Amino acid sequence: MIVDKIHTENMFLYYSTKMALNNISIKIPEKKVTAFIGPSGCGKSTFLRSLNRMNDLIDGVKIEGKVMIDTINIYDKNIDVVNLRKKVGMVFQKSNPFAKSIFENIAYGPRINGINDKNQLDEIVETALKNAAIWDEVKDRLGDSALGLSGGQQQRLCIARTLAVNPEIVLMDEPASALDPLSTSKIEELIVQLKEQYTIVIVTHNMQQAARISDHTAFFYLGELIEYDKTRTIFTNPNKKQTEDYITGRFG
Amino acid sequence: MTKKNKKSGSSGASAEEHRSDLIDITQKRFRIGDYLAEKIIKGVAFLSITIIILIFIFVFREAFPIFNTSNEVKQPGVEQPKQAAQETYGAVTDSDPKPETQETYGAVTDSANKPETQETYGDVTDKPVVPEKEGLKNAKLESASKTGKSSYTVSAGSGTDDNQSAVKTLLTKDWVPVSEKPRYGILSLIVGTFKITLISMLFAAPLAILAALYTSVFANKRMKEIIKPTIELLAGFPSVVIGFFALMVLATFLQTIFHYDTRLNSFVGGIAMGIAAIPIIFTITEDSLTAVPKSYYEASLALGASKWQTAFFVILPAATPGIFAAILLGIGRVFGETMIALMATGNAALMDLNPFESVRTLAATIGAEMAEVVFGDTHYNVLFLIGSLLFVFTFCINAIAEFYVKGILMKRIQGK
């Protein structure tokens, strides 16, 4: 049976007075890949960022409605945001490794969670790097600066860094948009592998990518959720005219 | 339709017209404005570099005679007035002239006692008590009048004996330049300078860096707009005001807390200089912290780090080169700071690692004594030697920093 990991109900989001998300109600299943597609500025990234409250960093953001993760409203007053973000990890569009060594980049998450045992850290780092399919490329230079890696490697390192904290949900904001096709295909393979352990929500501009890797697809347009269904349905037999227009490339 | 046609017709015509004066790229044009601007900028840049080098050469040249220990043939006529000047100097500080002193002094500096010398000595000491400043002025005038125009060459040619003994005393800890037997031990000054620099950095660096961290990471926009300009305003504060504040307020205040004996000491001076250095360290640290990409901050928070963990373990390390540079600039400021050192440190050349003892810094020594020194005298040369030492120290600090930041820090952080 499919469990809904994330569940929003009548959610509205405002940047001061401007409405950015209009009445979003969606149920995202556990251990599946869910893709958000839509033209630029349609609110899909905003929605993604509100799932681990990264929007709190922006001044003047106001959210109404319910955003439930495991039946808990994450916008409740007494929610611990720090722990929420441990549970809901995020990979950003631009790879952003810290100015530290490869090892330290991965070990940072476990360290701030109080793991300081060297052997344990070694193990976590190795597992995370293996899960992110980058272990073979970096295992001989874990002490080197992460900024010396190529763009694709950096992005996989960032994924490994997120996995090292052992989240339940991984949010990905266009993780492959700045990468070459080869690196992109590696990341896509990785995402498909990762869904066995994690619930993955991915924002993408690349519709083929959404079609290739996702189980469910949501189409956003102008802050509204136009259509949400199985990926196959969205791409072969969409219900709404707007969705069809978008995926066939008539606008957007 | 007609409108459209018209438009296209006219545009076509204009395109044809334009074709006659297409941009010509086959002929190289001489652009006088560009040429002049380039040359002027180049000239100004070279001029400024040359001026710095010239200052450097000048300071070194003035300091050089100390090391000039070659056995040149001395001209007695030139040597004499120099000696006279020195003795007057000694006599003024020593208010109670005894015959024995006179003799020993003569014996030490010159084996052959010359009558002229003794006369001058007697002359000055016969007078009632002369205020020190006036006496010094007299001595200066006297020496100037006797040596005439060529006072510089005098010192260069004659001072070999004096210089040799001066050089010998250089690496001792006694700084007694105005005495019968002047000793120019600059070790205590060097130690004092480094001690006070250390104290001020221990005080200023953590404060400034933490303040910058707060302003850059934690403070909201409005707070930031208040804090930053306020602290930066302090950078333009005249150091004489800070020195005055330290002298009158800070010294007493700290003494009531720590109960030390000497009111003005390296601790008070160090803190006062730290106050002067804080804005510099703060501004540059704040800039380098703000320059850390926001993505680091987001990435760290998305990993479940709290704000202070992010600030300390991600943002601060990423800004290390900038913070390093900031501290070095602060050190540079403290190192060369003269006014505060003069006013708040007590100015006693003691070689002691106790922070609650008075110190005398290199810069303060120049500031205090340069105006009253005999031109061309060994003391004068030693002061310039101190000046060049300041130069060399600053240069070394910067060179090490450059090497460290570029060679090690950047490599470690950016992997290049």
Kindly summarize this structure in a few lines:
The complex is a heterodimer of chains A (252) and B (416). In chain A, 36% of the residues lie in helices and 27% in strands.
- Major sheet summary line of chain A: 6 strands, mixed
| Cα-based radius of gyration of chain A, to the nearest Å | 18 Å
Q: Give the biggest sheet of chain B.
A: 2 strands, antiparallel
What is the overall shape of chain A? globular
User: Largest interface, per-chain counts?
Assistant: A-B, 33 and 25 residues
Counted beta strands of chain A: 10
Question: Helix- and strand-based class of chain A?
Answer: alpha/beta
Query: Roughly what fraction of the amino acids of chain B lie in strands?
Result: under 5%
Give me the number of helical elements of chain A.
10
Uncertain residue segments of chain B = 1-13, 71-159
Distance between the termini of chain A: 36 Å
Uncertain parts of chain A: none
What order do the helices and strands of chain B follow? HHHHHHHHEEHHHHHHHHHH
Which bin fits the share of residues in helices of chain A?
A: 25-40%
Mean pLDDT over the full residue set of chain A: 88
Tally the helices of chain B. Answer: 18
Oligomer state equals: heterodimer
Number of domains of chain B: 3
Q: Any idea what the CATH architecture of the largest domain in chain B is?
A: Orthogonal Bundle
